[in-house]
Amino acid sequence: MQFFSDNAAPVCAEVLSALVETNATDAAYDADAVSRAMDDAFSALFETEVASMWISTGTAANALALAALCPPYGSIVCHRAAHIQNDECGAPEFYTHGAKLLLAEGAGAKLTVDSVAQAIADVNTGVHWVQPYALSITNATEYGLVYTPREVAALGEFARARNLGFHMDGARLANAIAHLGCSPADLTWRAGVDVLSFGFVKNGGMSAEALIFFRRDLAETSKIRRKRAGHLMSKGRFSAAQIMTMLRDDLWLRNARTANDAAARLAQAAVDRLVYPVEANELFLKASPEEADALRAQGFGFYDWAPGEIRLVTSYHHSEADVAALAAALRQL
Amino acid sequence: MQFFSDNAAPVCAEVLSALVETNATDAAYDADAVSRAMDDAFSALFETEVASMWISTGTAANALALAALCPPYGSIVCHRAAHIQNDECGAPEFYTHGAKLLLAEGAGAKLTVDSVAQAIADVNTGVHWVQPYALSITNATEYGLVYTPREVAALGEFARARNLGFHMDGARLANAIAHLGCSPADLTWRAGVDVLSFGFVKNGGMSAEALIFFRRDLAETSKIRRKRAGHLMSKGRFSAAQIMTMLRDDLWLRNARTANDAAARLAQAAVDRLVYPVEANELFLKASPEEADALRAQGFGFYDWAPGEIRLVTSYHHSEADVAALAAALRQL
Amino acid sequence: MQFFSDNAAPVCAEVLSALVETNATDAAYDADAVSRAMDDAFSALFETEVASMWISTGTAANALALAALCPPYGSIVCHRAAHIQNDECGAPEFYTHGAKLLLAEGAGAKLTVDSVAQAIADVNTGVHWVQPYALSITNATEYGLVYTPREVAALGEFARARNLGFHMDGARLANAIAHLGCSPADLTWRAGVDVLSFGFVKNGGMSAEALIFFRRDLAETSKIRRKRAGHLMSKGRFSAAQIMTMLRDDLWLRNARTANDAAARLAQAAVDRLVYPVEANELFLKASPEEADALRAQGFGFYDWAPGEIRLVTSYHHSEADVAALAAALRQL
Amino acid sequence: MQFFSDNAAPVCAEVLSALVETNATDAAYDADAVSRAMDDAFSALFETEVASMWISTGTAANALALAALCPPYGSIVCHRAAHIQNDECGAPEFYTHGAKLLLAEGAGAKLTVDSVAQAIADVNTGVHWVQPYALSITNATEYGLVYTPREVAALGEFARARNLGFHMDGARLANAIAHLGCSPADLTWRAGVDVLSFGFVKNGGMSAEALIFFRRDLAETSKIRRKRAGHLMSKGRFSAAQIMTMLRDDLWLRNARTANDAAARLAQAAVDRLVYPVEANELFLKASPEEADALRAQGFGFYDWAPGEIRLVTSYHHSEADVAALAAALRQL
Predict the structure, then answer these.
(1) Cα-flanking dihedrals φ and ψ of residue C7, to 5°?
(2) Which residues in chain D have Cβ-Cβ distances shorter than 8 Å to A132?
(3) What is the value of ipTM here, to two decimals?
(4) Do B72 and D94 touch (CB under 8 A)?
């Protein structure tokens, strides 16, 4: 009964089956039929023509997106708690060849137009200062909050006005959309997003995320950079198959709903302990070390997050029984 | 009946089964039990204590190895036809932050002490010239030739004398060892190799190569660089499982033997056409465009390599029947 | 009567004379007699054996120093207001190949052990987080404050305990030493500094700063990086001559004293307006736009720094008369 | 009587005087009047509107030019003997963030359309191969040969047809123009050159080369990169003054003529020893070690270049007497 992270969850059955079915010989790299079908599938999902590519990890997806939007001598505005700042070992700096991350504030890892404006307010023009070229937000955020289409659009408008490229780290985009019930288009390109890291691994996939270019002109050089970074899998059809399987019949959305529902049930059981509202599949709870120990003694696995605070992450694979058991345990604390 | 490349072959059945078996929840990244077992498995195989890590592609494996051996202001001696020079879109330059590849000559993409010595003869000492820091060879070579332990050792001795790190690109190391019948140790660290890219994808794997550090001191920063490059898979146990499966009962060696045997049978059928001796699983054959067309008309797929020259690559999965059919077709040309 | 910046001041007469005297043909790059004499001169000045090199700008000096102390996948702790963060267009990121600057707090751009400890407190170990490798301070700071030997030593001790390289940006080190009356050794290596950017351009030089390696093992690769960055002047003797001239008879110290004295006189005249204590040669003064205009109307040139705040910088070349005139003008505001 | 290299020659008197005259306080960086006048001066010289900037060294000039023309994932075609390949410690790789130099052949370090075409003939399209983005030639070449306007134009046409940016390393452009008697425009932009490194240091300057952008759109980011590389001198007016002085009354051309004439006289004295025709100010002569010793015994300084080969470089400052003496000594060998 592990609630450490959705990124350690099993691969969902449909994806495993797809790997087996994909095993016929086909063209190498991304010239196979499944890889070539991806652009159409994502264009349909997003209701506009997009360019897409599979990529092994969210870190690589984010770093490639940022390299497409920001030159080596530029900066990228992101939240102080952003995954790209804290959890990627400098991948954005590596892929952009040394761009700077300009850190902005906001409760629950959520940026606002004001906080972004404040972050760049001190940057003078001229060659002495690194100039901002891009804005990156995470949806759902690192603390499980969800930007609405309206909130994204406000940031998108700001970005366009300041000539900033706009990237969305959607490692848990599925959870955000499941929460909002909105269309993928409304939450992304219609709100001004240029490039999207669309996560599948945390949601039941094995080793494939999608990078979606609403600005299709950025795709070509990104494919070059993907190869240059050693991310062009020779048997790429296995990556494509994971993504295409999860797109079929909205498996991605169903999985995310399951995860969100589990989180919501747990939130209800621990409503007085919530550090942030639970909108996606992450819970940050106030819990003393003794309380954390008590939960662990009952077989629940999770991370301590901060002094007096634990993190629980639900996933599509958590059984109703496991969730009910944890909910009960939380109530009894 | 495709002989385009071993890198487009199916995944072998044992590996697919392993993916399914690996699907229980475990720790993320490389903290799972399977990943942690890799060092022991490779240490046993190589008869010495090594550090190892899984990595998605051969390009990434090579580039990480080179970054471990060469600073940004250094150069790496390799063959003019080396994969790292021609087929990786500058990945070595990306990962090393701008090191230079110093190209050496040699028939069949094979380096000798003389050709390496000649490549670095013109390099003056001092800060104006990029100084060589590493030597990289491919075994089996890009033209399907195999370095013997003695040949590798001669290069290893030269490298040590000149203070060059020594990398082996073993995308087809299994084929080389199957050909030689030698121990993996004799062909690598006993011959002076510091870091080895050990290929599994071309030999039946799906998405995992191994990077083997005989100089274990280089592993720690390489793990940092792997993360920084977005190559630390969150569900890394699926990468480890592929490798561990192929190590079990020498599956890697049996697969390579199958591929080599197929190539040998084809070589026998086209002995007058061989551009290079066939030692591993690649054949380069003289064939006129008409002859190539005739083969394709019979359903065989392969690449034109040069004017009047075609390339055939065999793999573990080619059936005896397919190989026999192609052999017959070659004989009838 | 310009008080914009010491970096626009004239070159002092002794330096100009030295350029003329240096004009005999000599060896190229840094093989000339003057360049070769630098190590001895600085070793004498610092009372320990150092390695040194001339370099055209403070930005290049700092960036080379940081590249010597921090790998691409590391971070450098510095003040939020540090020159390396705000005024060098990402030179540290360029030269280190993508290291991160980790920003710490402190009044007047001055770091303390506590503020540095706080900056790195959130960094978890492991490959997901960029690990700190270096600490960089500016003395005198960007706001004209001076670290004492004791303060530097406290930071040096912390750096050593945490295994951080320790860099000092001494663009105005001369002013700091003139203020403290201490020995250069006490303020640098005896307090734990590993590499020092020693500024001469702001203090009467034309185009040469010195990079001082108290850890002499770092000099060799830094000389390679200097060449690689296009900073190895072919007529390097003219760079060396500037530095050697300023070392002769403590010209560097006398010039700095002149500048500090001027600043002190201005500070006395505007004691109620001081935003920071005046310890070196920079003054930050509260002044309304109208007051600033009034000063400008009298022919004084300077920058607005913040709303209601101006900056005045004195230099060795300001005449007593100019300083007296500005002091009088400040008093009359 | 040193003939080692023009890059160790004295600074010419006019330039030294200019430094003294420039010493009034002015704006910092490149906002001073002299720096701002450079674009006009070069636009007049080149008979078209250009953007220009001063830069400390030829290595930095070349590297900035190449970074403007080639992305990190591209390659630059140059001669195997090019300065950018052999003498800049990887500066092009550093500034471009890892672009590859693609080496072409040609007698006397001179490229032809055929040799360039051959160098890129093997590059397949697609993401696996680094694609060529730029062509770089050196005029006069590293062996003292001069490309004519017609030869440059042929390469320029080829470059345009293949969509390659075209860079000229003009460290000795003055010598080339002095030899040809052509207009600077004919040898550069009218022949298709996009960016020119225009050398002054080897021709009497101290520490300033000019980078000339015939494609003016490339200047802005190059100025950012110059700062980021630590090459934006705070007292930039001293750099600008050197260049402007050498442009006045064609001092640059007169100096080059003096150097060329000296080389021509020496060539006449050693006509049977010439390895290459002498077109600029460099001589490569067959000379046995004993002959070299004999010259050195008479006080002449120069470099051995290859077994049985020496290099002599003349400069504007060589006196008629010195040249006559060396000519006589050569005749007497």
Answers:
(1) -85, 0
(2) none
(3) 0.97
(4) yes
Contact in structure between C137 and C155 (CB atoms under 8 Å):
yes
Number of helices (H), then strands (E), in chain B:
14, 10
Residue B315's closest chain A neighbor by CA?
A25
Give me the residues of A, 211-240, that contact B with CB < 8 A: 224, 227-235, 238-239
Amino acid at B58: G
**Domain A256-332 in CATH 3.30.499.10:** no
| CATH number at B13-250 | 3.40.640.10
Q: Give all strands of the β-sheet with A165-170 in edge-to-edge order.
A: A51-55, A209-213, A195-198, A165-170, A131-138, A74-79, A100-104
Q: Does B304 touch chain D (CB under 8 A)?
A: no
Cβ atoms D64, D221 nearer than 8 A: no
CATH topology (fold) of A12-250: Aspartate Aminotransferase; domain 2 (3.40.640)
Chain-centre distance of CA A14, in angstroms? Answer: 21
Cα nearest neighbour of B220 on chain C: C127
Residue of D nearest to B81 (CA): D122
Is the CB of D8 less than 8 angstroms away from the CB of C16?
Answer: no
Is C72 in CB contact (< 8 Å) with chain B?
yes
Q: Tell me the shortest Cα–Cα distance from D137 to chain B, in angstroms.
A: 19
DSSP D215: S
Gap from C328 CA to chain D (nearest CA, Å): 23
Burial class from Cβ neighbours inside 10 Å (0-12, 13-18, 19+) for residue C120 reads middle
* Interface contact flag, A128 C73, Cβ < 8 Å: no
Considering only CB atoms, C233 lies closest to which of D10, D56, D234, namely D56
Q: Which amino acid is at A184?
A: P
For residue B294, give how far its alpha carbon lies from the nearest alpha carbon of chain A (Å): 21
Written out in words, the top-level CATH class of the domain with range C251-332 is alpha beta
C-alpha–C-alpha distance, residues D143 and D146, integer Å: 9
Tell me if C53 sits within 8 A of C78, measured CB to CB: no
CATH of B255-332, one of 3.30.1050.10, 3.55.30.10, 2.60.40.60, 3.90.1150.10: 3.90.1150.10
One digit per residue, the tens of pLDDT, for chain B of length 333 reads 899 999 999 999 999 999 999 988 789 999 999 999 999 999 999 999 999 999 999 999 999 999 999 999 999 999 999 999 999 999 999 999 999 999 999 999 999 999 999 999 989 999 999 999 999 999 999 999 999 999 999 999 999 999 999 999 999 999 999 999 999 999 999 999 999 999 999 999 999 999 999 999 999 999 999 999 999 999 999 999 999 999 999 999 999 999 999 999 999 999 999 999 999 999 999 999 999 999 999 999 999 999 999 999 999 999 999 999 999 999 999
Q: Do A89 and C72 touch (CB under 8 A)?
A: no
Contacts of D2 (CB under 8 A, 6+ apart): C25, D8, D300, D301, D302
Q: Which residues of A touch B90 (CB under 8 A)?
A: 228
Are A221 and D72 inside 8 Å of each other by CB?
no
Nearest-angstrom CA–CA distance, B214 and B256: 23
- Asked if B59 lies within 8 A of A230 by C-beta distance, the reply is yes
CB contact under 8 A, D232 and A127: yes
What is the CA angle A204-A207-A213, rounded to 5?
95
CATH number of C11-250: 3.40.640.10
Q: Is D97 on the interface with A (CB under 8 A)?
A: yes
Helix residue ranges per DSSP H, chain B: 13-21, 33-46, 58-69, 83-86, 91-96, 113-121, 149-161, 173-180, 184-187, 219-228, 237-247, 251-269, 289-297, 320-332
- The pTM of the full predicted model, rounded to 2 decimals, is 0.98
Domain spans of chain B, in order of start: 13-250, 255-332
End-to-end CA, chain D: 17
Give the CATH H-level superfamily of domain D253-332: Aspartate Aminotransferase, domain 1 (3.90.1150.10)
